[in-house]
Amino acid sequence: MFSQLDSKIKQYLVVTANYWAFTLTDGALRMLVVLHFHQLGFGALDIALLFLFYEFFGVVTNLVGGWLGARIGLNRTMQIGLILQVLALLMLTVSVDMLTVAWVMAAQALSGVAKDLNKMSAKSSVKHLVPEDSPGKLFQWVALLTGSKNTLKGVGFFLGAFLLATVGFTNAMWIMAAALTIAAMVSVMLLKQDIGRASFKPKFSDIFSKSQNINLLSLARLFLFAARDIWFVVALPVFLSAQLHWDAWNVGAFMASWVIAYGVVQGSAPKLLALSKAKKKAKAKANTHPAFHWGLRLTLVTVLLAMAMAIQGEDLSYLDITLIIGLIFFGICFAINSSIHSFLIVSLAKADGVSLDVGFYYMANAMGRLIGTILSGYLYQYHGLLVCLWGSALMLLLATVLVKFVPSPKLEAIK
Known about the structure:
By secondary structure, this protein is an all-alpha fold. It is built from 17 helices and no strands. α1 packs antiparallel against α7 and α8 runs antiparallel to α14 (319-348). The two termini are 29 Å apart.
């Protein structure tokens, strides 16, 4: 059946499967590191610092990786990402006494390079697999790729907690390294086209975007993902474990379920936006910038969640229910926002050397995660989860204002 498919669909399926395999191990690795080192007695800020190089080298990789992909092709950068992730996993198979902060940070740095090479390559490839006059299909394919990736990232969280509880940290690293090695070998055999290689030889200075729209969208993306990670990446799982006394299995299962649902909503964003438009009667509302409109909703949800936590104060009786309800609405609004942003960058990027624009954009994405991760550990350790939420609301407001100045796609084109 695979051999009978259109060549572009084949390539899209291979790219997506590659991205899925990588994302599964990446999600599991993040949960394993957070929970394992929390069990070893590391504080929230120490755990956040373990991801410092992961996020920092993601910033560097997206800039250089976009340039590299335009020169050698996106299939090669994608495969390099898989190999580097295998090496990062193997670095963490050493004995416990060798798992120092410096060593884990180095392994996470390698994983950060690997992840963003793989992500940039996958997102950029879609631009070449969809006709230029089909923005609706482009949005659907980008949403499906991104949504399915995040669903599997949630499965990875669940897998990480499961592996930690059953086979332990070291054996989990070996299992994931073996699985990813197989995925890399399959990718080399099936992904044969030099997707994304530019018709010109881009200069290294071309890594910086010269487009005002892409610069604005990138800055909005930075604040959007900093707003998520400032409370979600370190503060929330540590809060659930330390304050609400959830065990590692419950924390992992909850985080996994949230991210899986988030990915499903993200993949369904084109249909949800089309349905939303069909229900609008007023012309003014129909022409509302979708990213701006959903950004306002996300900001409001975050403010309401922070207010609900503030009202409850020191009473933890119903705080878990408050967080779960708040996270449901936060996840829905954030998923749709992220999906629209991802479509905007692929749509606005130049087709020739697309990875240059996409790489710059995801550099801002990685910078946002870096800022959010450090602030998550620092603010939680010294001020608590509530301050993390207020910081998130402020960043979301900034992201929403910035995206207002980026040209909006017509909803008719993305339904």
